[in-house]
Amino acid sequence: MSEVIDPCYYCGNSTAFGFGRFVNRLPVEDGWGCAECSGFACDECDKQIYLDCDVRDEEGGFYHPECLPIDQHRGYPESPSDPDWVEGTCGCDLCETE
User: Fold this and answer.
1) Are the CB atoms for 64 and 58 separated by under 8 Å?
2) Residue 48 gets which letter from DSSP?
3) Global pTM?
4) Are the C-beta atoms of 78 and 84 separated by less than 8 Å?
5) Strand duo 26-28 + 62-63: pairing
6) Whole-number percent of the chain with pLDDT over 70
């Protein structure tokens, strides 16, 4: 049995270069967390949200874009100075197609 190099703190999969989880890994506790495990749980369905793929509501809850009605999406992009910012949208893929 081979040793896992730089295992994810949560799932144990390798976060080492060449294993597909190196680029988006985050430092956690005494090691690394992969992007699949380091996001938040959706406040609607309780499933893990991939890192940086969440949308927020006015109360600051975390949701998958498809779990929250589009008219309640808030928070991304965070700045009106962002060239992709459109008033009334959050910048997620669902809002971009509306």
Assistant:
1) no
2) B
3) 0.64
4) no
5) unpaired
6) 79
d(CA 77, CA 1): 45
3-state secondary structure of 42: coil
- The separation between CA 38 and the C-alpha centre of its own chain, rounded to angstroms, equals 8
How far out from the chain centre does Cα 75 lie?
13
Residues in the chain: 98
Alpha-carbon distance of 78 to 92, in angstroms, equals 12
- In the chain, DSSP assigns E strands to 26-28, 31-33, 55-56, 62-63
Model confidence pLDDT, tens digit, residues 32-79: 999 888 888 999 999 988 887 888 888 888 899 889 888 887 755 555
Instruction: Name 94's Cβ contacts closer than 8 Å, sequence gap at least 6.
Output: 65, 66, 70, 73
